[in-house]
Amino acid sequence: MSKIIPFRQLAKAQHLHFLEHKRREYQEREDYLQRLRRLLFQIEGQMRTAEILQLEVFKQAAKHFHISLDFPSQGDRLVMQRFFAENPFLFTLTEFFANRLTPEECLEKISTLAKPER
User: Fold this and answer.
1) How is 49-87 classified by DSSP, letter by letter?
2) Which of 36, 100, 106, 112 could form a Cys-Cys staple with 96, CB 3.0–4.6 A?
3) Quick one: pLDDT at residue 115?
């Protein structure tokens, strides 16, 4: 004769199985997220380095053409975007680097912005 398992015991076993399954599912996803966070942190670091190197190009160009630039804090991306859009020298260089201006056109625009040397 087969043994009868009480409903409570079956329900408890089902709940325990459900919880264990969800814990494994959660842990797998959490481990995956941790790996993605580490990767994202590395990528953000590399992007930040590349952005700083790009800013150096603009600083070198400003120094070359004797144009003084006071860059805003690099942590504020919105202010930095506005600075690039509103500064005629930076806007001109951005247009040149995006291949929307020829070198001659770029130099002509920069020449009008540069202070004449005495």
Assistant:
1) HHHHHHHHHHHHHHHHTT-------TT-HHHHHHHHHH-
2) 106
3) 60
